[in-house]
Amino acid sequence: RLRGCFTLSCGFKMDTTPESYLDLFPLEAIVYLTPDSENVLQDIDPSKVYVLGGLVDESIHKQLTLRRAREQRLQTARLPIREYMVRAPNSRNYHSETLAINQVFDVLCTFYETRSWPAALRAGVSSGKGYVLPDTADQ
């Protein structure tokens, strides 16, 4: 539980507080970002509060963030990875849409600045996730 204010890479300020986002914002303003959502994030709405979850091991906690959001009756969305990227062939046949918090933040920041999902996904989705933009699929 930290308290403080930080300036983030794309010029946003982040406040940390021990209070829950459920106590700080109206439920209808909160969008919980989870890779398991059926809803694709099309745009960033400045009137919304986006919750970035944080899990270390996606295989053990599959759909945990989606269940948590549903229990809290929150809107959910996922990044449009499937819509803009393709599965890259790799030796392990590994493909994951689960990103670290800093990767999700990089995607959101870049999208906010460029209004381009391909540019945003290029900035935040590492090739180790098994997804690439179609123009780099053969490289």
Automatic annotation (TrEMBL):
InterPro entries referenced in this protein's UniProt entry, alphabetically: MT_TRM10-typ (IPR028564), MT_TRM10-typ_sf (IPR038459), tRNA_m1G_MeTrfase_euk (IPR007356)
GO cellular component assignments: nucleoplasm
UniProt keyword list: Methyltransferase, S-adenosyl-L-methionine, Transferase
The keyword Methyltransferase belongs to this UniProt entry's keyword annotation: yes
Protein EC: 2.1.1.221
Gene Ontology biological process: tRNA N1-guanine methylation
Molecular functions (GO terms): tRNA (guanosine(9)-N1)-methyltransferase activity; tRNA binding
Top EC class of this enzyme: transferase
Catalysed reaction, written as an equation: guanosine(9) in tRNA + S-adenosyl-L-methionine = N(1)-methylguanosine(9) in tRNA + S-adenosyl-L-homocysteine + H(+)
Keyword S-adenosyl-L-methionine: yes
Domain SAM-dependent MTase TRM10-type: start-end pairs: 1-132
Protein name: tRNA (guanine(9)-N(1))-methyltransferase
Species whose genome carries this gene: Spizella passerina
